[in-house]
């Protein structure tokens, strides 16, 4: 069970990083496994209503500077709905599916 959870977390992290890299979105990755200060910062900055009922919040967690954006499920849902840039607090680039969908909504 622990090994599977670790593999799931790793896969989710790679999914997020791969998306950000493929779309040339600048980001800073913070390793919480090897850095206690990063782990403490993440735990303190995940809002109470986004924490698990027991234990600590698990990665990946996304932030825009210190503003909490959500967990992997929220990222995945935004990606499925072509709304990742809005989720990340960024402007969708012209020509992207998200920008086109937004233009249609505003028309």
Automatic annotation (TrEMBL):
Keywords of the record: Cell membrane, Cytoplasm, Membrane, SH3-binding
UniProt entry tagged with the keyword Membrane: yes
Superkingdom of origin organism: Eukaryota
Function: Appears to function as an adapter protein that bridges proteins together or proteins with mRNAs. May function as a ubiquitin ligase-substrate adapter. Additionally, associates with translating cytoplasmic ribosomes and may promote the expression of specific mRNAs.
GO cellular component: cytosol; plasma membrane
Gene3D superfamilies: Glutaredoxin
Protein location: Cell membrane; Cytoplasm, Cytosol
Membership in a protein family: Belongs to the SH3BGR family.
SUPFAM superfamilies on file: Thioredoxin-like
Protein name: SH3 domain-binding glutamic acid-rich-like protein
Assembly information from the UniProt record: Monomer. Interacts with PFN1/Profilin-1. Interacts with ERBB2. Interacts with ATG12. Interacts with BECN1. Interacts with translating ribosomes.
Gene Ontology MF terms: SH3 domain binding
InterPro entries tied to this protein: Glut_rich_SH3-bd, SH3BGR, Thioredoxin-like_sf
């Amino acid at each position: 069970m622990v090994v599977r959870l670790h593999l799931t977390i790793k896969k989710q992290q790679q999914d997020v990083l791969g998306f950000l890299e493929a779309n040339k979105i600048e980001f800073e990755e913070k390793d919480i496994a090897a850095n206690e200060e990063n782990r403490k910062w993440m735990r303190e900055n995940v809002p109470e209503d986004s924490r698990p009922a027991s234990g600590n919040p698990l990665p990946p967690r996304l932030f825009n500077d210190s503003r909490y954006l959500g967990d992997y499920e929220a990222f995945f849902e935004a990606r499925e709905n072509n709304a990742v840039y809005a989720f990340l607090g960024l402007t969708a680039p012209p020509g992207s599916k998200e920008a086109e969908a937004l233009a249609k909504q505003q028309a």
